[in-house]
Design a protein that fits this description.
Distance between the termini: 89 Å
Shape: elongated
Radius of gyration: 26 Å
Number of helices: 5
Bound molecules: S-adenosylmethionine
Length: 273
């Protein structure tokens, strides 16, 4: 190679090397300095962080235990995921904004919670959250409504906690407010109910159940006698009254059984009608 071309090549290599050497730490610093702005655009909802007092209250309301796997839908800066991990649970955040995902990972590392946490840069509408025992979210009622069919298909007993926003006609099983919190201070809890709508056979007669989310109505037909049924589901736990008796039990597939007040036990099987 002639000396001039060699000189040009060496200069170019040096320039490129210098540019990379200078720009890489800058990129890293920029990432570390990333500070999200309250109200900044998000894919379907803006970023507003849940106040820490309400994060704590939401996890209390969900009765989160170290055995649980929590997923936060739209996980922002990762605070709910990290708080769940500090309580011993495994926790995962789904967040569309890549900068927030990186910030969450770095926040988790700073808190020593990397091992029990994970964050995915993904669209919550295209994500699988069927493995969760607890779902947390701070979205909008309209988004909760879109997610509702998918949530109702989760395993019975899955606890879903929303900051402030409701789920339409599916009324919350419990609510709580955080003390010392100024905005966005209410948590709502739903427990995914088992599906029991339809006909069941009891030794006493035929039980016809109509299910509206966790609420039950229907009839218990025994000979010529038709008794009204009213009840409620709590995950796979069932409670109903019929003809002055109170039935409490558990549903497992096509069988449900439990105890009765004033006394005795009961068992019902799906009659397939
Ligand atoms: C109100 S913030 C709540 C953040 C966090 N969960 C909390 O409670 O602090 C909503 C978050 O959802 C994210 N988001 C919006 N649309 C999304 C989508 N389709 N998929 C995933 N994340 C989304 C936003 O970027 C934002 O971080």
């Amino acid at each position: 190679m002639n000396p001039t071309r060699l000189l040009i090549r060496m200069s170019l290599t040096l320039c490129l090397g210098l540019t990379l050497a200078c720009s890489l730490p800058q990129a890293k610093a920029a990432q570390q300095d990333y500070q999200p702005q309250v109200g900044q655009e998000g894919k379907d909802v803006v970023w507003v962080p849940t106040p820490q007092a309400l994060v704590d209250r939401m996890l209390d309301l969900a009765k989160l235990t170290p055995k649980d796997f929590l997923i936060d839908l739209g996980s922002g800066d990762g605070r709910t995921v990290i708080t769940a991990a500090k309580r011993g649970a495994r926790a995962h955040g789904i967040e569309y904004n890549p900068d927030l995902v990186e910030l969450s990972k770095s926040n988790a590392a700073k808190e020593g919670m990397s091992a029990r946490t994970s964050f995915a840069k993904a669209d919550l509408f295209e994500s699988d959250f069927s493995q969760a025992d607890v779902i947390t979210m701070f979205l909008l009622s309209s988004i909760n409504l879109k997610l509702r069919p998918k949530i109702l298909d989760l395993k019975p007993g899955t606890r879903v906690v929303s900051n402030t926003f409701d789920m339409g006609e599916w009324k919350a099983d419990a609510t709580a407010t955080a003390a010392g919190c100024e905005n966005w201070c209410t948590a709502l809890l739903w427990i995914v109910p088992v599906k029991v709508e339809g006909a069941w056979r009891l030794p006493q007669g035929e039980l016809l159940l109509k299910q509206t989310f966790q609420m039950l109505s229907g009839t218990l037909k025994s000979g010529n006698n038709t008794m009204q049924v009213n009840g409620k589901l709590n995950g796979d736990q069932i409670n109903f009254t019929a003809g002055g008796n109170q039935y409490t039990g558990r549903v497992a597939g096509s069988t449900m059984e439990g105890t009765m007040k004033p006394g005795g036990s009961w068992k019902a099987t799906r009659s397939g009608k």
